[in-house]
Each structure stands twice: as C-alpha cells, then as structure tokens.
Amino acid sequence: AKDTYLSTTMLRLLFFPVIPVLIHFMFPIIPSVILGLWIARYQLLIKPEQHLKKLYYITIIGLAISLIGALPLSFIG
C-alpha cells in the first residue's frame, strides 16, 4: 500500500504524545527520580553516618542490578 502524506502525518500525530512517555519508562529516568525522592525523604545522604547499613544494602542491590543488566550486552559483543 502507498503511504500518502495525510496518512503519514496522521500516524505521526497519533504517536507523538506516546513516544516521550515510552522513553521515560524504557530508559531509567522515572525510577531514578523516584529513588532520589525516596533517598531525600529519609535523608540518607544528609546524615549518612546514621544510615550506613541501609546505604550499603542499596549499593549492593544497585551494583547487582547493573551487572545483571550489562551481561546480555557483554555476551552480544
């Protein structure tokens, strides 16, 4: 089927508001913001000496998730 100017324009207008939302969920923007809000709420970085165990736990979990996420890319090439 031939794509006309009108059909292409309508399709792009339809997907225009959806793509930024998908980008925020596909890339770690929203989870990073939520994690930052959580850290600020409990003042984990303002008084780190009071939260060493919790900060250590968050660091270990974050590194594990990062390594697991990087494994498929390292196996590809």
Task: Summarize the structure in words.
This protein is mainly α. It folds into 2 domains: 1-41, no CATH class; 44-77. Helices cover 75% and strands 0% of the residues. It contains 4 helices and no strands. It has helices at 5-15, 18-26, 29-41, 52-76. The longest helix has 25 residues, at 52-76. The protein is elongated. It starts with a helix and ends with a helix. The mean pLDDT is 89.
What structural class results from the helix and strand content?
mainly alpha
Distinct helical segment count: 4
How far the N terminus sits from the C terminus, by CA atoms, comes to: 38 Å
The radius of gyration is 21 Å
Write the element-wise H/E pattern from the N-terminal end onward: HHHH
Protein name: Glyoxalase
Transmembrane segments: 14-39, 55-76
Keywords: Membrane, Transmembrane, Transmembrane helix
Organism: Bacillus wiedmannii
